[in-house]
Design brief:
Helix content: 25-40%
Strand content: 15-25%
Mean pLDDT: 74
Largest sheet: 6 strands, mixed
Shape: globular
Order of helices and strands: HEEEHEHEHEEEEHEHHE
Length: 272
């Protein structure tokens, strides 16, 4: 396969060409059942991509069950350096979907994909664009559902933490704060001094750790973590519209123009 970046930023026609085939009949989410519990995802593999952090990660797994009871089996993980992700992502997709990843249908393993998960930010601007472009291209070419998730939400869910922060540059952080339950969580861009108390705060980057004495530092979230986090939505078939799904920038227009940054919340989220 050719490099995803050979065709220009934001476009991945080489992935589309590689994936252009008749999708399997079972590679789609089943409709919700009449009892409201959902009948879950039909058999198939789920590919997850996260290009927002210091390294790009891909994971391949299977989701069984429905809703919050869904279980995830991770079959394979691939890691790339962030600076080389654009040039290596199509090869990494080959590696993640290779025969060593586990069972798949005869022919191209792409035909076994039932869904795609992509971390849409916040994080590296270039990384977000690369990950979303690749995920959207595969989703469109294979006609399989796409599930976008917040990197902050993935970290918070993995660590069972009500408050998590990521580095946003220029003394700012991206903060996620839960207000009693998951659906009431708020994600926003703040100056470090306005992020509130550090008690219970979880971070995953050294730069953020130095800003908040007493914060608990953990490993960065990965594509496998994102797949586990999205499993409930996958099992229920609550996919995003690939045509309108965009990166989660969490920044102000003033910052983009180089003017002083305001620090009021810029996004409230009600689902992953």
């Amino acid at each position: 396969m050719k490099s995803a970046v050979e065709d220009g930023p934001g476009k991945v026609p080489s992935l589309r060409a590689a994936a252009r085939m008749e999708p399997r009949a079972d590679a789609v989410p089943a409709p919700d059942s009449s009892d409201g519990t959902g009948s879950g995802l039909m058999p198939g593999l789920v590919l997850s991509l996260d290009a927002c952090g210091t390294e790009t990660t891909l994971a391949l797994g299977r989701v069984a069950g429905t809703g919050v009871a869904a279980n995830v089996l991770i079959l394979r993980e691939v890691r790339l350096g962030a600076r080389t992700a654009g040039a290596q992502i199509t090869q990494a997709l080959d590696d993640a979907l290779g025969s060593r990843a586990g069972e798949h249908a005869a022919g191209s393993p792409l035909q076994s994909l039932a869904a795609i998960v992509v971390v849409r930010g916040p994080g590296s601007f270039t990384g977000m664009r690369i990950g979303l472009s690749a995920a959207k291209a595969l989703s469109e070419a294979l006609n399989v559902p796409l599930f976008g998730v917040s990197r902050l939400a993935v970290l918070a869910a993995r660590e069972h933490a009500p408050r998590v922060a990521l580095y946003a540059g220029r003394g700012n952080v991206y903060l996620r704060a839960a207000r009693g339950h998951e659906d009431a969580a708020t994600e926003c861009l703040l100056a470090a001094g306005e992020a509130g108390p550090t008690t219970g705060l979880v971070v995953c980057e050294e730069k953020v750790e130095t800003m908040f004495a007493g914060a608990r530092r953990v490993a960065e979230p990965t594509a496998a973590d994102a797949l586990r986090y999205a499993s409930g939505r996958i099992g229920s078939g609550r996919a995003d519209d690939a045509a309108t799904l965009d990166a989660l920038y969490l920044w102000q227009a003033e910052q983009m123009l180089g003017a002083p940054t305001t620090v009021s919340p810029v996004a409230a989220v009600s689902q992953p």
